[in-house]
Design brief:
This protein is of the alpha/beta class. It has one domain: Spore Coat Polysaccharide Biosynthesis Protein SpsA, Chain A. 28% of the residues lie in helices and 27% in strands. It has seven helices and 13 strands. The protein has helices spanning 33-44, 58-69, 101-106, 127-139, 220-234, 245-255, 277-290; strands at residues 5-9, 48-53, 74-79, 116-120, 123-124, 145-152, 163-170, 176-188, 191-196, 199-203, 208-216, 259-265, 270-271. The strands form two sheets. Strands 1, 2, 3, 4, 6, 7, 8, 9, 10, 11 and 12 form an eleven-stranded mixed β-sheet that branches. A two-stranded antiparallel ribbon has the order 5-13. Helix 1 (33-44) crosses helix 4.
């Protein structure tokens, strides 16, 4: 079997961050969060890195990543655009931002022929997740058996306020049955709660949540295309509507067309959304370097 591909979602506008956080430096030598993900992915056994970007970002990405990765791993670039004609949609729909993460994945349908996984560019996932995903993609994945990494919710929260999390429900075999979006999740005392309509509900600290780390075969592309065409039709008048990967996961789970193994990890996750998050991420990376998880000079 071919080595799997790592598909990195890096086409977002980063409006809340204020600049292109995908290529902002967080490590001691200006390493991006993507650098650490790629380093872990190569070590875990991925054979190719595909960046999903806006076409106007191409030269910036190549200038940053090609010198580092040459001779270490194959690279590829996928453009996420506003063009709907390739899906036989002839209408022009005004959009201020791309169509969302599942559309980004769909954009790669002509370039990825092997099993692959999807991650966010601005999230740190840790080696354990990449190692477990490679094992799944090379030994268990089929066209009806996909996966996602389930992070313990206690390892994904912020000390600085509430966050939104996709809380996963699983059956006794560890397969996904539902993802419930909880928009206000936070630490309270020694525990974790989520708030809904002003009422607090407790959450087990080890509850699995989705941090957008998914494993697929190329069979997902025609499914995404069908669902995307339906999504566009239903959201013509909603310029902010986004076609997210969990919508695909929810559809496949409910219809039984495919199942998702929720692969547990106790790895600490961290990410950057706001400019104020930068110092927190830098400190987290510094701690990983102190603990010897990564060399001081990554490449």
């Amino acid at each position: 079997m071919n080595k799997p591909t790592l598909l990195i979602l890096a086409a977002g506008m980063a409006s809340r961050y204020g600049s292109m956080k995908q290529i902002d430096g967080f490590g001691p030598n200006g390493e991006t969060i993507i650098d650490y993900s790629i380093h872990d992915a190569i070590r875990a056994g991925f054979g190719k890195i595909s960046f999903i970007i806006r076409e106007e970002f191409l030269e910036s990405f190549k200038g940053i990543f090609e010198p580092k990765l040459a001779g270490k791993v194959e690279t590829d670039y996928v453009f996420q655009s506003f063009d709907l004609k390739k899906y036989s949609i002839n209408e022009e729909i005004e959009r201020a931002k791309p169509w969302g993460t599942a559309h980004a994945v769909l954009s790669a349908k002509n370039q990825i022929k092997e099993n692959f996984c999807v991650i966010n560019a601005d999230d740190y996932y840790g080696f354990d997740a990449f190692e477990k995903m490679v094992k799944f993609l090379t030994t268990e994945a089929t066209d009806t058996n996909f996966s996602m990494i389930g992070y313990e919710i206690q390892n994904t929260l912020s000390e600085n306020g509430s966050v939104s999390r996709g809380v996963c429900a699983t059956n006794t075999d560890g397969y996904l049955t539902a993802i419930n979006e909880r928009t206000q999740v936070y630490f309270k005392g020694d525990g974790i709660v989520y708030e809904e309509n002003g009422v607090e509900f407790p959450l087990d600290p080890e509850t699995p949540v989705s941090m957008n780390f998914w494993g697929f075969t190329p069979a997902v592309f025609p499914i995404c295309e069908k669902l995307f065409v339906d999504f566009v039709e239903a959201n013509k008048s909603n310029p902010k509507a986004e076609f997210f990967i969990p919508l695909v996961g929810d559809y496949l789970t409910k219809t039984g067309e495919a199942q998702f193994k929720v692969i547990p990890t106790s790895q600490k996750w961290f990410g950057v959304t706001y400019k104020e998050d930068k110092e927190i991420v830098q400190n987290s990376i510094s701690k990983l370097l102190e603990d010897g998880v990564y060399p001081a000079k990554l490449w």
